[in-house]
Amino acid sequence: MINQAMLALGQEPSSIRELFAYGLARKAEIGEDKVFDFSIGNPSVPSPAKVGETLTSVAASPAQGVHGYSPAAGLESVRSAIAASLNRRFGTNYTARNLYMTCGAAGALAIAIKALSEPDDEIIVNTPFFPEYRVWIEASGDTLVPVPMRTSDFQLDIDALRAAINKHTKAVIINSPNNPVGVVYSEQTLQALAQLLTESAEQYGHPIFIIADEPYREIVYADVTVPWVPSFYKDTIVCYSWSKSLSLPGERIGYALVPDQVSNFDQLYAALCGAGRALGFVCAPVIFQHVAAACVDEPADVAAYARNREALTAIMDECGYEYIQPQGAFYLWVRALEPDARAFAETAKRHELLLVPSDSFGVEGWVRLGYCVAESVIRNAAPAFKALKQDYE
Amino acid sequence: MINQAMLALGQEPSSIRELFAYGLARKAEIGEDKVFDFSIGNPSVPSPAKVGETLTSVAASPAQGVHGYSPAAGLESVRSAIAASLNRRFGTNYTARNLYMTCGAAGALAIAIKALSEPDDEIIVNTPFFPEYRVWIEASGDTLVPVPMRTSDFQLDIDALRAAINKHTKAVIINSPNNPVGVVYSEQTLQALAQLLTESAEQYGHPIFIIADEPYREIVYADVTVPWVPSFYKDTIVCYSWSKSLSLPGERIGYALVPDQVSNFDQLYAALCGAGRALGFVCAPVIFQHVAAACVDEPADVAAYARNREALTAIMDECGYEYIQPQGAFYLWVRALEPDARAFAETAKRHELLLVPSDSFGVEGWVRLGYCVAESVIRNAAPAFKALKQDYE
What we know:
13 helices; seven-stranded mixed sheet; globular; 13 strands
């Protein structure tokens, strides 16, 4: 009577959502300040003032149709403004025709995967990985092929990728700055990946795409820069969201960028438009299209996350946890103190620490700490982290 | 290399979109007031003041996370407010658990169809019908079965529906007030449909759903009321949007309502959640969830459309066109003056009249006039309608 795959997805337990719900209930029970909730990626930094100003100004506009339909791909003026900003930053030559506005990076990824999908396709993801990749890949009828990142530095494992590629490989999804690990893929990594995919595409006689999932592009620390993937590899689709840079995750605004250089540009862009229709998107929310255009050069407020990173890693150092130093995003990837990360997360819960076990991201033995929280949460959590460590000594 | 079905969808010509684009170009060429554009359903009435006030107030809120993720189904408080409003209007007992917030009715329909879809499913639509139904039905792997409405009054043809139902029938989509015809299905029609589906469900041993697509529910004229479909038939999913009632089509806010009474409520609701994930929706835009809750009892501004309806039908009467008197929505369904509606629409274009040929809605011989336009467009179009009529005399 009901689609069993959709039912399974709807009923699938999610550690992140369950922890988040548990946290809300627990806070109501024992007090907001007694629970140290590192479970989710809801930005703690308020949106820049310009977001509110743009919303207010659009809302006050007497223009008829200010909330009317935009073209499915988005308003031409908005796409032009975004293209111009990318061109200033990356020395590119994009125009409105390279952009397709979406309901966040999730919309962009679901659309891009659907647009590319053919029978027997395989899509490679690098583990640990954002769990919804599996949902969109399998919903399109494709097979997810997990390839572990190098455990030494969590850069891409080019040899492992080479071993995983075959004639069915349609795309590799990369996510840099990375959720959950916080790594930024280096130019060297991207060069090696581009070379591998160029050779493999030639070997198998069809393009192999990079789908670059980049919602954290602006959230980077110290002097780290995020290389622009299409500069390294022609068959790249960039999926972006303003969820993190402008603290707008609930508003669903992002884009898919398809450079002119991709194989069969016209067909690929048309297939994106078709996939947007098929999945039930009509257009990205118009008022946030205006916000995106107005804020396109607005700097992300990284300072707060940088302070949090310092504070949290200082506690980890003091307690003696092993972790990966984040170059970007706002997650800390910490080695669990027992092999079973779920059991470790349960133990952490007894200290009111809400940490996401790495099983959610396709690997064992780690936990993810989202540090997009008030700095006080981190400072107040120090004794709990200490006590948790002591449980294992 | 690319999904051929998505490519075909993306490249598919759409009379409505093409006419709309033609209209924009033509207006730029010969002047805004010289083109009589009846091509699309973009509401001409501005949003109520409360929409802008809510946007401004949310934008000005100092609360952290005001633009943060909501649960996938939507904010509990918002869903409760909508449930309470429905209960006041329809004497029902809904709660937040009956509502799943979506990116407009399109999102709700795509999700509902996907949630129900099993192999070999057939979904019945009543022609003429909104063309995207086919897209979502076929994207889910289902077969669209068109059943013509009665041509006498465009109520549902129960005998024809009976003949079309078989063991593969999963659902019937109904749309009242109707796009493109403007009819509102009567209580008598809904009773007959409910009886037919109840018998058929028993005969075939599985539920047959009504998917009630209701974005025009509040746009009705004179003393017409729109019956509440779940009061007539238990296995009903209502798909709603504020696109038309609050003039917010570009902002993508609506819901799917699943009453407790439906067969396997828990599973069906879970499957909706699963389908929302699979299609790439994360949550409906949060700020417009707040707007929907704030404006849940805000009356739609029907007066302007009522005036337009009067003005347009007066012109039709004067010129001698045959049309269906609209009870709701803002479309006039007019008999083309030659059997080929596309050819008729081309002739109309020579008089700067942009009318959508009925082929877009799965039937021949009619055109749709969207009268959600400035009243002046209608008044100024009178000579053009007259001249068009004379072309055929």
